[in-house]
Amino acid sequence: MTTRTNFKAYSSTKMNILSEAQCHELVMAAVEAMWRTGTDFHDKESLEILRKAGCWVDGKRVRIPANITERCLRSCQKHVVLCNSRTGARELFIEGNNAYFGSGPCTPFTRNPFTNERHRATRQSVGWATKVLDALPNIDYAMSLGIVQDVPLLVSDRHEFEQQILHTDKPIITVCVDEWGQADVIKMAEIVAGGEEELRRNPFICLYAEPISPGVHCKEAAQKLVLGAKKGLPTIYTPCIMAGGTAPATMAGVMVQGLCESLSGMVLSQCTREGAPFIMGGVYTVLDMGTTIFSYGAPELHLLLASLADVAHYLNIPMFGTAGCTDSCIIDEQAGIEAALSIAMTNMSGANLNHDTGYSEYGTTSNLDLVVIADEVLGMARRLTSGIRVDQETLALDVIEKVGPGGNFADEDHTEEHVEENYTPRLVNRAARSIWESTGGKTLTQVANEKVRDIINYHEPIPLPKDISAKIRDIVENAVGHMPGEDD
């Protein structure tokens, strides 16, 4: 009998949708599309970078030869780390099957946890959201959960980042309006980190850009990708595509379209700076033909992103995924079903950085009650993937013999030593009905809302030094917005 000693490989719960042969076929189809059809780049510098690298450039259309794609895949970092902003400690190791979870960005609306009012996101709402993210044990990083709209929109990204860095020491994924906004955010991050080189060595921010599907790299996205590469900072490039709308109706066709767009961005990143940390990914879903929405709760989203995780593992490139979101307009049974399915499936697939936890109304409205509920689901999902340890200690033959038939294991030292292997819920109710009724008979959503309000009122994030906060405030106050189309 062969002894299986690899505990991680043989005891944990993992999931694969695609075989290695299918992953290879999808990648080769994407590489073919990158040459046969190509994609459009609307930034002059990007076009020149790609032309010099040997790509075929005709106007804004760029066709990338297979050998260039293959070379860039080899040079792309396989190991990206995000750090704590206060200590510089290396916390998130974005590689392999490591799965981390955080919120999403840029929702125009948010749900006020005190009044239940749905309103435009503000500086205050982003600050509240970040405090909640900071307090939750299973949330690993922060995104803004709102577009700040009580300031001029062209400089809203600076205000979002300020609220985030003031209210959490967890890594931050930042979404900026354009390259000028990204440059200001990087400058603020460098102040916090202690300099440009310190931020590059121990980055606590990850930059974000996305193409416009199908196959368009707008000026702002390409410029942000180039700036991220020049700075040597981790950059996510992730298409958001809809089967039957901005991509073919077939799941394989969606994968090819999305990979073509993401890998074209990877080529630009690597041609700008070889070895630049790049994270592929996407939000792949369906165009709901009954409502015409971009569905965040569709089972196809979970299926496609689990498949994309298989491809990312095949390519050995870090992966940006999606989980913990819903199409429901309120946090109800539908929201629970959709969020829990996506979290469990994503965690088992091993996608690395998974965002949009807290999205409701098909990505238009952030809801902190859902974030708190998702944090509990994440604890359960991680218990599922931790598997069952099987060795002499856990087989427990000695304690079974000691207690014997009809005995009780509750008072045994072995039980005390191993009880923490079982998941202890922080939010879910397991009490007898009489106890539940005596404490108010509250629903899960009511309990979650109480926890949100408690965090906002009483949680104290680790503060930034006052001089650092003042320097960040100065950059925010003096930020200049650039109208689209301006060259400088």
TrEMBL record:
<dbReference type="InterPro" id="IPR038601">
    <property type="entry name" value="MttB-like_sf"/>
</dbReference>
<dbReference type="GO" id="GO:0008168">
    <property type="term" value="F:methyltransferase activity"/>
</dbReference>
<protein>
    <submittedName>
        <fullName>Trimethylamine---corrinoid protein Co-methyltransferase</fullName>
    </submittedName>
</protein>
<dbReference type="InterPro" id="IPR010426">
    <property type="entry name" value="MTTB_MeTrfase"/>
</dbReference>
<dbReference type="GO" id="GO:0015948">
    <property type="term" value="P:methanogenesis"/>
</dbReference>
<keyword id="KW-0808">Transferase</keyword>
<keyword id="KW-0489">Methyltransferase</keyword>
<dbReference type="GO" id="GO:0032259">
    <property type="term" value="P:methylation"/>
</dbReference>
<dbReference type="Pfam" id="PF06253">
    <property type="entry name" value="MTTB"/>
</dbReference>
<comment type="similarity">
    <text>Belongs to the trimethylamine methyltransferase family.</text>
</comment>
